Amino acid sequence: MNDFFTSSVLVATAASAIRLATPYLLASLGETIGQRSGVLNLGVDGVMLLSAFFSYWTVLQTGNLWLAVVVALAVGVIMGVLYGIITVFFEATQGISGIGIFIFGLGFSDLMFRQQVGTPKPVQRLPRVDIPVLADIPYIGEPLFQRSLLTYLAFALVPLTFLLLNKTTFGLNIRSVGENPQAADSLGVSVERTRFAAILIGNTLAGLAGAALVLQLGIFQPNLTQGMGFIAVALVYFGAWRPLGVMGGALLYGLVNATVLQWKSLGIIPVSISDLAGMAPAIVTIGALILLARRVNAPAALTKPFSRH
Amino acid sequence: MNDKSNNLLEMRGITKYFPGVVANSDVDFDVRYGEVHTLLGENGAGKSTLVKILFGLYQADKGDLLLRGEKMEISSPSDAISSRIGMIHQHFMLVPTLTVAENVALGMPSTRRPLTDLDKASKKISEISEEHGLAVDPSEIVEHLSVGERQRVEIIKALYRDAELLVLDEPTAVLTPKEVDDLFVILRRMADNGRGLIFISHKLREVMSLSDRITVLRNGQVVGATTPDQTSREELAQMMVGRAVRLTPDLPPNEVKESRLSLNNVSVKNDSGTLAVDNVSLEVRAGEILGIAGVSGNGQREIAEAIAGLRPIEPNGLIEINGSNVSDTNTRSRRDQGLGFIPEERVPDGAIPEFTVGENLILVDHETDNFVSRGLFSFDKISEHSSQLVSDFNVKTPSVNTPTSSLSGGNIQKVILARELSASPSVLLACQPTRGVDIGAAEYIHNRLIEQRELGTATLLISEDLDEVLGLSDRVAVMYEGKVIAVVSGEDAEREKVGLLMAGITEAVDA
Fold first, then answer.
1. Which of A167, A189, A300 lies closest to B116 in CB terms?
2. Where are chain B's structural domains?
3. Closest CA–CA distance from residue B115 to any residue of chain A (Å)
């Protein structure tokens, strides 16, 4: 245990926590925006798998990381349009259609991988971008300012999402259609358009999350996410539908994950139970959810399709 | 242009079909500048359909709409708003988690796009508040506001959009009598300033006091147009229903006997854990109707649920039915003690909408030997029993096998009444027995309750309809903030006095 409490190990753990938190944070922020508009998307994991595969495949073919990110965004947009049509225009039950999206993403990314790639081949990863001066600060420089652009973007999106939701007219529309769509409708706010836009943003961020995941690892395998998208949905509840809270959840999750990994490699956790220890982040999250539950109400119209009649 | 003789709105020959129903049939309706024009009618008469067409929520199948003399197409609420039509909906169209300013600014263009401009909105709200006497704090979150304040926010919303034609869909349903008076002063002033107001209501007393003109709808058609000085409440009711109705039931003298239901120091918490009923003691005796008056949300729902056994009471409290302590017993054993219960929510609490009329009629006794033999339902007995009840209680239904959900509200209420009264209850708990039912059915239900009183049932009547409570009760208990703040005998219960008590004002009454 003493091996763990050395500055270099702690700094490395913090750095890995922030790296691991990145895909969760991106996906959760997107899901937050969607849920604040009243739409639950359980398909996040499927979208992440699809975008992860296609951006991985893009790097494999072209070697161009930024093209890979663009492809991931495009996958997110396409899935967003699809999910928007299903839930907003056909008013489908969100829980079920989201699971449908997940299963589609899981199956299609698996199929494409087997057909087009076969055996996992490593690709280049997202480069580390050091922020001048700040990166050299002892202890906090490495975890905070020696990261990839996608990590910086994910954390920059926290205040941006806050501003979007709370300070813009679009955000006001999102919050009102998530709480009382009839009221918004009666004032001429288009519930359909607002929700569709929120879904589109949410899925695009899920797409970006898939890219962040695969480009941090530098490799793809079937079911790469192993349910990360579902954790991202849970983190929205954990964070009480607030960007800052969601960030806290993503960081906690990343930290527990990183600690377990570190303890495994240091031998603090015996090999015999190391698989069990992999459950720790989920258990911590569930525990925190139980403790925090019921303090804040979910958007009142969450999962409820809207129609005038 | 604001000449009082000019039409602000003219709707001509409006016809609207819904599957199987004609909701509006060739309706003509107009509103002049500076007047309050009331749309009066029973539920389902087509009032709401007509104004929803005006507000762009529905499209008319036939007919023309002229606004300020020009033909208009209104295909969405935003069209209506930009034509300066404002609507105060029956159920508040507010987002409870947002502030007053956010609710008001919602859907309006901002000068600081894409950012909101709530400071400017707040300033304008304060100006409107001051001009029209609509006091409200723009930065307050709506869920912290009282019902009366929320009503004001709704009106401010319309004025903020510079509405010239205002539709008020049953705006008084949730207000105290005092709040209604205040609202009417505000509405009258708005009309005097040249706006046109459409007032929708079925409360005849309010219609008589506020309207300049009254148009009565029945079954989707205009059946009459009149003014308050040319008509009476009785005549209006007759126009609405299509036959003569007695508005206030006669309460014949009756002998009051032993105590049947008694509450001793009963306190009840609501869903959020705060005290909704605060140390209430009451007694209801055989052969009397005790009415509970109060503005909704003052503990009536909770006290009813506590008596029915649906909500626990705090320790130290005691509920007795026919002398036996039922404080901790379940609903079944309370029914066995003789309790009948007409719940506030007809559906789904009183009847299961997907079940047939017959199934709902036996729902309480379905396990008894009356309907079960050798563990299986005896459908002959069930259908015999339920057919009898359907004819005894004038339930309008094609058959006892019809799904209850296809019946009108009044008929579903009769099904519930039939089930509860057929058990010959010694104590009857009747919550909002005529809410949302038409005048004819209400009259019928009132007569049945009076009949029970003559049979010696002890009835506790809980209603938001003050006229109903005053007309039916031997004694009236007024609930305010969870307490019974006064019990007055039926003869002494004047509207004004009870109205003040409902607002928590006891001083004037003691004198």
1. A167
2. 7-241, 259-510
3. 4
